[in-house]
């Protein structure tokens, strides 16, 4: 399995969860979850590009 694939997929799932939380009454929690998800997504993408 390619290095960085798991964080990228996990970041996608967490970002989607955070985006759905933004539409509920938990906007602050949704913002935090979305931020963590985007961070995982970016770091996973960096690993995928570096370790080709």
Automatic annotation (TrEMBL):
The keyword Transmembrane helix applies. The chain crosses the membrane at residues 28-49. This is Asparagine synthase. Keywords: Membrane, Transmembrane, Transmembrane helix. It comes from the Bacteria.
């Amino acid at each position: 399995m390619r290095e960085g694939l798991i964080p990228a997929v996990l970041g996608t799932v967490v970002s989607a969860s955070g985006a759905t939380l933004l539409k509920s009454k938990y906007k602050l929690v949704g913002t935090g979850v979305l931020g963590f998800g985007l961070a995982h997504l970016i770091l996973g993408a960096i690993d995928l590009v570096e370790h080709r």
